[in-house]
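Researcher: Batch entry, complex prediction.
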Amino acid sequence: MLVLARKKDEAIVIGDDIEIIITEISEDKVKIGINAPKHLKIFRKELLDQVKEENLQSAGAKVDLEALTKALKR
Amino acid sequence: MKTKTKFFGETEIDENQIISFMEGIPGFPEQKQYIILRDEDSDFIFLQSTEEQNLCFITLPPAAIVGDYSFDLSQETVKKLELKNPEDAMILSILNIPEDFKKMTANLRAPIVINIKNNKGIQELLSDENYNMKHQVFGRDA
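Model: Structure tokens for the complex:
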């Protein structure tokens, strides 16, 4: 992994059209500004992990379909 | 062809109806082929893996859960699915059904999107923060 040291208001450029700017630094948090083409998806990584977790939970659940269908019909 | 399913035993399926998830579904990267199954007794739509019998997502169309569900699909996904018209997209929300089914939740933030014209599918994570990954299907008071 490439690790670069940056100060506030300094930036990193990735390829031709992605720019990452450090906009604010506090004790345990940095704020990052990102300029990137609109078609690129940018998400906090926890969110992607959460999608995976939801899927695993959904597929792993023991569902009594017959009982569920009956209960919903009532 | 016949395929073994989680909820409906061995079932006859039409090979032309197999949906390809080129990237798999997060958590299940190896399974790339699914089939849609319906059950006349309920509104659920089942997304059954044709490669793994025990892998079947129970889903509902989000419009059945919240009235005014809408979102902008990313350009990247439109391209990947070769989607030409919004009407060609089938949208499903994966349900999480606990033992107490009244606490059932739907993932409205990351819908399954299927191009019904070419049977390509993807799970899309929306940028729209108004939609919840654990949306209570029966409301909070149920």
